[in-house]
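Quick one: structure for this chain?
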Amino acid sequence: MTGQEVTTRDLGELSQGPREPVKMTFQWFGHTIRVADTAGDIPLIRFLSDAGRIDIGDEVGTALATHRFLEEQIHAEDWPKFLRIAQENRQINRDLLQVARNIVAAVAGFPTGRPSDSSDGPKHTSVNFNAGSLSVARQAMASVPNRPDLRRLIYQAQLARLQEERDQAAEPG
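Got it. Here's what it folds into:
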């Protein structure tokens, strides 16, 4: 330390206050499943971050990220029952992702229809995604069809990851 005192400025309390626990249920093949008390869009943000780091073509990584995301949306006591019913009815990753998307939309109050003035983000790109990368990006983007801001984040995360891979491949070694 140089002898100079570092001062900080306290911004005060920034929270808007705690929200009430989520009290929602949904029907799943004739069974009532409870939504987690803490369900919402924070797990979605973690999922999007995970999706941006999943290796190209990593279907297992995609499935595990979806599983973690969905588990945070389902009440812990109902999670085993939900999975059992999903397996009995041969649900696939895309089906489970749709359940998570519907929960987030309900909890966070996202619109159910596409806003007329919103864009889905960039329409064209010069980056060439391979099939695996497109699969991860499409699954992540499908989880937020009414949120062009989050779709753009997914797109940017995918571009950044691809650029990082190109930079690493170009390094002499």
